[in-house]
From TrEMBL:
GO cellular component, one term: trans-Golgi network
Organism: Cyberlindnera jadinii (strain ATCC 18201 / CBS 1600 / BCRC 20928 / JCM 3617 / NBRC 0987 / NRRL Y-1542)
Any one of the GO BP annotations: endoplasmic reticulum to Golgi vesicle-mediated transport
PANTHER family (alphabetical): GEO08327P1 (PTHR12817:SF0), TRAFFICKING PROTEIN PARTICLE COMPLEX SUBUNIT 6B (PTHR12817)
Protein name listed in UniProt: Transport protein particle component
InterPro entries: NO_sig/Golgi_transp_ligand-bd (IPR024096), TRAPP_component (IPR007194), TRAPPC6/Trs33 (IPR037992)
Stored SUPFAM superfamilies: Ligand-binding domain in the NO signalling and Golgi transport
């Protein structure tokens, strides 16, 4: 097997992921306000205010765990996942895992190749019941390395949870690129350990 040279700049990826949750909150808030204004004026105007940018206080927003924010983050990850799998497949078409497209091999591809490309390491554990349900475990999720709330650990976990939806979307996008529909539930099992419970249609 040929060694894959990482093509994702780790710093750029960290900065992108760190900004995705605040951006989703800001756009959700602006859309909500614009919708309310549109009911009155029927002309929505969306703009992000300067004071909303670059402020960690946005993670205290009531929208942090809203369905709209979750949906935006998961969809961004989904788009990344589809494109990333195409790039990895194109770059490493001789990959033994890809020669036998069983669901378990696709999960191994996610755990090994996709995770290494994104986070510089493989997933730490892959479990399955061999009936379409999988659990992927990362013992030290890289996205959480710099997260620490001055309040307490519970507050840190609360503010970190939305970031898992990006990775869930990436996994769902990779699976979809192989024609596998899935439902993914991310969990913070023991900070910074995370797990992704995957239910597939296979």
């Amino acid at each position: 097997m040929t060694e894959i040279t990482p093509q994702v700049n780790a710093t750029c990826l960290d900065l992108l992921i760190n900004e995705m949750v605040p951006l989703a909150i800001r756009t959700t808030r602006e859309l909500k306000q614009s919708y309310e204004q549109a009911i009155e004026s029927l002309v929505p105007q969306i703009s992000i205010k300067d004071e909303d940018t670059g402020d960690v206080e946005i993670l205290n927003s009531e929208l942090l765990h809203s369905e709209d924010v979750t949906h935006k983050l998961e969809n961004c990850g989904y788009s990344i996942g589809i494109r990333l799998s195409e790039v990895l497949i194109y770059k490493d078409s001789q990959n033994e895992i890809l020669k036998n497209l069983e669901l378990l091999n696709i999960m191994k591809f996610i755990c090994r190749d996709v995770w290494r490309e994104l986070y510089g390491k493989q997933m730490d554990n892959l479990r399955t019941n061999h009936r379409g349900t999988f659990v992927l475990i990362d013992n030290a999720f890289k996205t959480f390395q710099r997260f620490d709330s001055p309040v307490d650990l519970q507050d840190t976990i609360y503010k970190c949870k939305p970031y898992l939806w990006i990775s869930s979307g990436i996994i769902r996008g990779v699976l979809k690129s192989f024609g596998v529909d899935s439902l993914i539930t991310p969990e913070i099992t023991k900070f910074p350990m995370v797990s992704f419970n995957i239910q597939t249609n296979v």
